[in-house]
């Protein structure tokens, strides 16, 4: 079964991305999507041992989950 964890759509950390809220690399993508939607954000920092290791974008997470939103 295909993994649906945050680490599967991880991008390099971009300075300036807020560190509140955050997710962990082993968190489920659905948790990350729910968190981003509840905070009204489109990207979220990923922390390991309290340090930022990357970000994920809402669009990438939704696409990995098989949900494509056409904004055209």
Structure description:
The longest helix is centred in the middle third of the chain and has 11 residues, at about 30-40. Helices cover about 25% and strands about 20% of the residues. By secondary structure, the chain is α+β, with helices and mostly antiparallel strands. The radius of gyration is 11 Å and the shape is globular. The chain is built from 2 helices and 3 strands. It has helices at about 30-40, 60-65; strands spanning about 20-25, 45-50, 50-55. A hairpin with a 2-residue loop joins strand 2 (about 45-50) and strand 3. It has a single domain, classed as CBS-domain.
Characteristic terms for this protein:
72 residues; alpha+beta; CBS-domain; 2 helices; 3 strands
**Shape verdict:** globular
- Distance between the terminal alpha carbons, to the nearest Å? 32 Å
Parts with pLDDT < 50 across at least 5 consecutive residues: none
Largest sheet: 3 strands, mixed
Number of domains: 1
CATH class: Alpha Beta
CATH-derived topology? CBS-domain
SSE run: EHEEH
- Main sheet strand line-up: 1-2-3
Which percent bin holds the helix content?
25-40%
Brief overview, please?
With 72 residues, this protein is α+β, with helices and mostly antiparallel strands. The protein has two helices and three strands. The protein is 25% helix and 21% strand.
SSE layout:
Layout lengths: L21 E2 L5 H11 L3 E6 L2 E7 H7 L8
Parallel strand pairs: 1-2
Antiparallel strand pairs: 2-3
